[in-house]
User: Fold this.
Amino acid sequence: MVYPIVAYGDPILKKRAEEIKKDTIDLTKLIADMFETMYQANGVGLAAPQIGLSLRIFIVDGEPFDEKKLKGFKKVFINPIIHQESGEEWPFEEGCLSIPGIREDVYRNEKLKISYVDEQWNSKEEEYEGLAARIIQHEYDHIEGILFIDHLSAFKKRIIKGKLTDIAKGNIAPAYKMKFPLLKR
Assistant:
């Protein structure tokens, strides 16, 4: 099932998501639906709050983004915790399925260490760097109630304020199904 992507302005995107308890939801279906939704929207990552669910889960598949560097980088992160971010901060132009049409440079650390459980409920602790780390950091922010635009300067935020209002009101034509919090019906 393809979910509508929740647009900027919906309170769920600014809320810290709830931890998932084992055997409380149909994870297999949720994960399949999340991948189907992400692929339909041509994304490389998707967090549960972006489909209206306040759950600590996100998925990634970076291969379509960079076939060489991210080959096989398709994962599910349940109840993740980033323990450490290290290395140089580097800029990269980020975008977000919940904020279509806006892309801005965001500075993030080049490496991270994360623990999580996978879809079989196995505990994992792994380290990532470069684009893989960036995709994880971006999606992790979503389950913490942080959007990539929250990393921008006040000046940059003022510049894009009108575009953000248009997104929240549904005054855009996205290439995928979305749910707009301020759309007047």
About this structure: Residues 154-169 form the longest helix (16 residues). The chain has a mean pLDDT of 96.
